[in-house]
Amino acid sequence: MKVYVPLDAAARACGADQVAAALQAEAARRGVVLEVVRNGSRGMVWLEPLVEVETPAGRVGFGPMTAAEVGQVFDGGPLALGLVEELPWMKAQTRLTFARCGVIDPLSLADYRAHGGFAGLERALAMDAEARVAEVIASGLRGRGGAGFPTGIKWRTVAGAVSDRKYIVCNADEGDSGTFADRMIIEGDPFSLIEGMIIAGITVGATKGFVYLRSEYPDAIAVLNRAVELACKAGVLGASVEGSGLAFDLEVRVGAGAYVCGEETSLLNSLEGKRGVVRAKPPLPALEGFMGKPTVVNNVISLATIPVIFERGAEAYAAHGIGRSRGTIPLQIAGNVARGGLFEAAFGMTLGDIVDGLAGGTASGRAVKAVQVGGPLGAYFPPALFDVPFGYEEYAKAGGLIGHAGIVVFDDTADMLAQARFAFEFCAIESCGKCTPCRIGAVRGVETIDRIARGDADAVPLLTDLCDTMKAGSLCALGGFTPYPVLSALTHFPDDFAAAREAAE
Q: Does 292 lie in the same domain as 328?
């Protein structure tokens, strides 16, 4: 008998390790030979720990499982969900980047190859560097870390730069609230990231790569380090990638917990052993990045999607999506929701479909008041904007940003003035201190919100002026994007601000 129990951090937090141990004990008691595979998560967090049993018809799910109820895995029972692939959450997805996540043993190279792994690398090795760059550009892939910059254009810049050394740096410092896609792919399918970084390296002429991984992800750190070891032993990494004669090595570096190190230049400073402060641009990292050398800095999901593009072809990938937002995006649904988790879909879904349909509304059963998209620096969307299609330009026109596609839901008890204050407070705490608009502006922002809360109506235009200054003058997105949650709260929920002034009066 073969069963799958996730080693994903969310599943472990829900008791997956205890369930795995209980399954082994129950099998021994019944005299059943049991193989337990620790896989990644399917993304249905409300069902974790999700145990899957391999059957001739497919994998049957049981969840959310507890150690006391593992007998149902052997006998059946109310926790039986049916075939996992047939569950509505799974059937409605377009799983490309996450196709293997939750399916394979994440540390089995044989499993990875059996499910299409390294097919993209094989095709890439048969192409020249110029053709590889053209393939990425044609796919329409844009940075999934938040900026949305075309990945192929960045690669082309680094490929054309003249230097004795070049680098690939993966930004795995996933610090936004309500985001967990990077962690999930590293814990559930780490070789996809490694394969993507190899393709990037051989394309731009880099022989060394770094993954800058946040210290708050101990499970991801352990899994990725082990995956790198296995890839080196198998000849996937090293002096001759897959026997091609092309070299590429990879190293995992662990951050020290600074939110601002999610910004690429601050990350590079930290990677070099310096204080994590933002660099002024130009020069761009693509020309003067790590150790002053041309460097590709891409997000985990961007790089993990590269093998899909080369395996299926740029045209097939670009066939998904809307406008200039091509391909798929891993929606990370969190906050006050009935069903939270990761759902990979083509760009174009509306926020209403995501929140009311996929998430099933609020866990509290109350009305949805606001949805913050894009992490702590993302705008708050009211239900009146739930028909906006999920796309970069579409959200920008509506005064928001997609960011890393984290979606946090609030019900009608949320105080949006307090949420606006939190945005400034967060920025003040996390600012690297390099530029005045961010360092001082965030502190003044907290003070200005407090003035409004005390009934000072004259502070409202001061607040909007401060936000305009931070947008225009900050060196990076931390200060530049903090006005998004503040102004959206002020614009879409004016009653919360007025109520505070009336209460003060």
A: no
146 pLDDT tier (thresholds 50, 70, 90): confident
Domain end residue (candidates: 291, 318, 345) = 318
Tell me: do 121 and 81 sit in the same domain.
Answer: no
Q: What CATH number should be reported for the domain holding residue 427?
A: 1.20.1440.230
Could you count the other beta carbons within 10 Å of the beta carbon of residue 255? 21
Find tokens 């129990």 and name the residue.
Answer: 5
Residue 328 placed within a domain? yes
Cis peptide upstream of residue 283 (ω within 30 degrees of 0): yes
Phi, psi (5° rounding) for residue 150?
Answer: -60, 120
- How far apart are the C-alpha atoms of 271 and 62, rounded to whole Å? 42
β-bridge mates for residue 409, sequence order: 335, 371
Percent of the chain with pLDDT over 70: 99
The pTM for the full model equals: 0.96
Q: Is the confidence at residue 197, as pLDDT, over 80?
A: yes
- Average pLDDT, integer, range 460-472: 95
Boundary (domain end) residue, out of 318, 351, 375: 318
Q: Examine the domain organization and report whether 327 and 283 are in the same domain.
A: no
With tokens 């000072």, the residue in question is 456
Q: Strand 328-335 vs strand 341-346: parallel, antiparallel, or unpaired?
A: antiparallel
Q: What is the CATH number of the domain that holds 259?
A: 3.40.50.11540
Range of the domain at 459: 416-504
pLDDT by residue (tens digit) across 47-57? 999 999 999 99
Cα separation, 268 vs 266, in Å, equals 5
Q: Quickly count: other Cβ atoms within 10 Å of residue 280's Cβ.
A: 10
Angle between helices 218-233 and 181-188 (to 10 degrees): 40
